Amino acid sequence: MTAEMILFFIFGAVSLIGAISVISFRHPIYSALSLIVTFFSQAGLFVLLGAHFVAAVQVIVYAGAIMVLFLFVIMLLNLGTLSAQGALTGKLKGVAVVLGILLAAQGIFIAVNAFTDTEVGSADAMERATARVTNPIETSDIGELLFTEYLLPFEVTSLILLAALIGVIVLVKRDNQTES
Amino acid sequence: MSLEYYLILSALLFTIGVIGVLIRRNAIIIFMCIELMLNAANLAFVAISRSLGDADGQLFVFFVMAVAAAEVAIGLAIIVSVFKHRETINVDEVNSLKG
Amino acid sequence: MEINILEQITIPIIKILFIAHLLIIGVMAMIWSERRVSGWIQDRLGPNRVGPQGLLQPIADGIKFLFKEDLIPNHVDKPLYVLAPAMLLVPAMITIAVVPFGGDITITGLDDPISLQIADINVGILYILAIASLGVYGVVIGAWASNNKYSLLGGLRSSAQMISYELTLGLAIIGVLMLSESLSLRTIAEEQGSNMWEWNFLIHFPAFLAFTTAMFAETNRLPFDLAEAEQELVAGYHTEYSSMKFAIFFMAEYMNMIVGSAVVVTLFLGGWHFFGLENIGGEGSILSGIISFAIFFIKTGIFLFIFIWVRWTLPRFRYDQLMNFGWKFLLPVALTSIVVTGTLWVVTNGNRLWIGIGNVVAAFIVVAVVAGMLALDNNSKSSTQAILDAAPLRGLDAVE
Fold first, then answer.
1. A143 vs A58, A154, B63, C103, CA distance in Å?
2. Is the CB of C394 less than 8 angstroms away from the CB of A68?
């Protein structure tokens, strides 16, 4: 049992508990807070995987921006009164859970079997990869790739963000005019 | 520490997200579950990136996050305007597009 | 791998305990100096009864808070109500972990030099931004859990304000990162050198101003304290809090100020450098360590004084002014600073003088253009409409 493994099981367990709480709490505020816990432990897992930059961005973008927007909307609409109508009941819920368990079984089967015969999936692949690459992946490597090989996707991302910006403004402005 | 553990965790998180989308009727919670699924995919990306020893997987995570941020902004704006017009965000009651 | 207990466990724990206690003592010192300085600015005495010059006043305040009844109102959401103060205090405390207080010092008898910093992580700046963005949760959760409409309004204002000003906070430091070519705070501080004209605040003057202003907004201090505006919202998000829970909100605010000042000193004001004074006694000696720590401390103290000074000088922004200022002035200035720094860096081969001049000129042009456009826009619209346009809860009346 190495330190990395212990940390993996702690972070993994916390993220699973958080994820289950997201779908089982009746009140959206509690769901949102559980989701923040999950995102946090995922950032911890990213650090374990040596992806420090991704871990920091995960906290800044997901925990710092996206979830604040969620909380803002939940508070703005004061959804507490609506929480009672939150979930399916009875048979349908059972069907959904059974389907979900099937999906999980399928996913685990793929995760266990898909890489067994390849170099990537062998038990010590991560150690060997770390040894093979002389420097671990650093933030500057990501930046370099982003502005050379992945320049086109990067620019497309900026277009997506611009489109989202315009879309949100249009959604809000139209309401404004109909009211006044 | 082998890749499998991370992939199994990722599969479990993804499944919880799917179950959430199926059983919850509150649009905001469904939305959160979609974020959870995206995150599960991110975890798999980073784990495989580490296993292969190159940075491409981490770049994909970066793109996924940018798209997720755009999606959340739009989605929440839609939810707010739906709520303003119909006073509900239960996805079963918002069915005016059904023929 | 052999673990050296003294160097790998004991020394870090000593460092953590020292810094954590320094922060708490710093909070007490800040409470005292805030009250004394505000008294001085308003031409009155301020607290001067408990101890010499009222120095023991913070302890008296603390004892009062501790022994007050810890009231939990019936209508609150109890788990979140209790959690909220902690969610504000913890981010405020852990940010200091990556701030460097001085260079490495060598102590005879130890193998490795000791760095005057708790942890030098290679994405230090991103760590600070990440933790700073978590501070908003304490406010928002506290506001929501209080189940009080003034609290809720304060929380909504605060979350909108923090999201808006965080952008400026992040963008303003990109120019600094480009010239330092590092995300580690230690490298950034070392890069700046001993002399004042080499420090980042001259090279990136507009970015420095934008960063400082955004930091004022992040700490919820006047003139950005709309989240707890007494005249409008009773006390905003902490209206329902009393006793020690209220005191924790209070402590978190002062801790945020101290940590924020330390970050500004590291990023823009040369860290522990001061005209070579930090090297007295030879580089790496214990004496130089103590002196650089003292220099850092004094710089932070001066910056904290400016915090207090601003609070008792400027009146509060109106909500539309706040949003206009953040989005239409600070954000363009921060963005321009990135473009200008990058361009001039390539054109002039990294000549810092030209980058500094270019940044200031560009910022002037941007501010002038934005101000001109706003003036044209305002002629066609009444000021009441401008206020209504920026109101945070516009359209909500349609819901109720």
1. 16, 11, 13, 28
2. no
Question: CATH code at B10?
Answer: 1.10.287.3510
Cβ–Cβ pairs < 8 A, chains B and C = 5
C38, two tokens: 């505000």
- Rounded to the nearest angstrom, the minimum Cα separation between A111 and chain B is 5
**pTM for this structure?**
0.84
What is the span of the domain harbouring residue B69? 3-86
- The reply to whether B38 falls in a domain is yes
Nearest to C329 by CA among A175, C337, A101: C337
Q: Give the closest-approach CA distance of A180 to chain B in angstroms.
A: 15
Above 0.90 for ipTM, yes or no? Answer: no
- What distance in Å separates residue C4's CA from the closest CA in chain A? 17
Residue B61 falls inside a structural domain: yes
Name the residue among C156, C183, C393 with its Cβ closest to that of A139. C183
Q: Do C398 and B83 touch (CB under 8 A)?
A: no
The string of pLDDT tens digits covering residues C75-110 is 788 888 888 888 888 888 888 888 888 777 777 767
The shortest CB-CB distance from C156 to any of A52, A75, A179 is to A75
Residues in chain C closer than 8 A to B83 (CB atoms): 399
Q: Which residue has the tokens 């305002």?
A: C378
Nearest to C155 among A56, A63, A75 (CB): A75
B98 within domain boundaries: no
Predicted confidence (pLDDT) at residue B27 exceeds the cutoff of 60: yes
How far apart are the C-alpha atoms of C371 and C369, rounded to whole Å?
5
B83 touches chain C (CB under 8 A): yes
DSSP 3-state assignment of B90? strand
Q: Which residues contact C9 (CB under 8 A, 6 or more apart)?
A: C3
Q: What angle do CA B83, A162, B17 make, to 5 degrees?
A: 55
Nearest by CB to residue C123, choosing from A69, A139, A176, is A139
Residue A5: CB partners within 8 Å, gap ≥ 6?
B1
Longest Cα separation, chain A: 66
**pLDDT tens column, A108-165:** 888 777 776 666 655 566 666 555 554 567 778 888 888 888 899 999 999 999 999 8
**Three-state secondary structure readout of C73-108:** CCCCCHHHHHHHHHHHHHHHHHHHHHCCCCCEECCC
CA distance B20 to chain C (A): 23
Total structural domains within chain C: 1
Q: Are strands C104-105 and C114-115 parallel, antiparallel or unpaired?
A: antiparallel
Nearest to C83 by CA among A125, A179, A34: A34
CA C330 to chain B, closest CA, distance in angstroms equals 22
C19 phi-psi bin (left φ>0, alpha ψ -120 to 50, beta other): alpha
Confidence check: pLDDT of C65 > 80: yes
Which residue has 């207990």 as its token pair?
C5
**Interface contact C52, partner B, CB < 8 A:** no
A&C contacts, CB < 8 Å: 75
Which residues span the domain enclosing C114?
2-399
Which among A59, A139, A179 is the nearest to C130, CB-wise? Answer: A59
Domains: count for chain B: 1
C400 reaches B (C-beta below 8 A): no
Residue B42, in any domain of the structure: yes
